[in-house]
Specification:
globular, alpha/beta, Rossmann fold, eight-stranded mixed β-sheet, 2 domains, 297 residues
């Protein structure tokens, strides 16, 4: 699949979208700033068909793919919202138990793109589980604007506890070999870092995509290998990386970090114009190889 980013979209539009997606500006302000660029008739497409997601573009693995089996599973979360729910995808060819990977969504719930990432992992031979932080309020509502609002309405500490509970659920699932990785995007990148630091004996490998670190007091607890993925143009997240890297060096952490040239925040998400096919393909191949190295041996 190729990027759907027209060459004429200015970088400011992507920067403003990042602010909008993370709640720093509202939708009206975002669209007003786009209008200020004065790009004529194509502008409407920037706001609604390019920068904003089109999830039909993101399906790389059909939910009907004969090589996988998908279902929804409930799990207990006594320190979170009492109960969680997630999307479990397994390889049909799995015999016995297999390595597992927790997939953590962005700041808007379990949208179709994240479901597809779980299916991609199952196609690669992993037991994948993608929880929905919005389960306590009815689940992902079908659009990202409402999803963001719902996620902001929930207690952040309880959301984190739900993902901790999901990690334990998957680690001890009957289909899991006991080797557990985590991959997450944006907010999910933060959760990946947080899980590696908070439950270090549970997480065996973590791949945060453009995510900020766990709190400084938790970083020294990290034990698992990390692969950190960044977009060169992602000023907001990248600003926090030097301090995080120093903290990782201080504990002699096993980490590797990649910065993808000219890539924006969200470059792996193939439903929007931020998608960078070259960076996403390379980052994903590295991710799968990393999990194969640390979860299958």
């Amino acid at each position: 699949m190729s990027s759907n980013q027209p060459n004429q979209i200015p970088q400011e539009a992507f920067d403003w979208y990042d602010q909008y997606a993370h709640g720093d500006i509202d939708r009206r302000t975002f669209l007003a700033r786009l209008a200020s660029l004065g790009i004529g008739g194509a502008l409407a497409g920037f706001g609604t068909g390019v920068l904003l997601p089109d999830y039909a573009l993101a399906e790389q693995v059909s939910f009907n793919d004969p090589e996988i089996k998908a279902s929804f599973q409930l799990f207990e979360s006594p320190n979170g919202h009492a109960e969680g729910r997630g999307y479990l995808v397994t390889p049909r060819a799995l015999e016995g138990k297999g390595p597992s990977v927790l997939v953590v969504h962005e700041n808007r719930g379990l949208n179709p793109y994240i479901k597809d990432v779980a299916r991609r992992l199952a196609k690669a031979g992993f037991v994948a589980f993608a929880p929905d932080a919005l389960h306590p309020v009815g689940g992902y509502p079908g659009n990202d604007d409402d999803g963001r609002s719902l996620q902001r309405s929930l207690d952040r500490d309880k959301i984190e506890q739900d993902f901790i509970a999901a990690a334990y659920f998957l680690k001890h699932h009957e289909l899991s070999s006991g080797k557990l990785g985590v991959v997450g995007f944006c907010f999910g990148g933060y959760i990946s870092n947080m899980l590696a630091a908070t439950i270090p004996t549970v997480i065996d490998a973590a791949v945060p995509f453009y995510g900020t670190s766990a709190s400084a007091d938790l970083i020294p607890q990290i034990q698992c290998p990390l692969m950190l993925q960044f977009g060169e143009l992602d000023q907001r997240v990248n600003a926090s990386w030097p301090a995080y890297e120093e903290a990782l060096k201080a504990i002699n952490a096993n980490y590797q970090a990649y910065v993808y040239p000219a890539a924006n925040h969200g470059f792996h998400n193939d439903s929007t114009g931020r998608f960078d096919e070259t960076a996403a393909s390379l980052a994903w191949s590295r991710t799968v190889a990393f999990f194969n190295q640390h979860l299958t041996s």
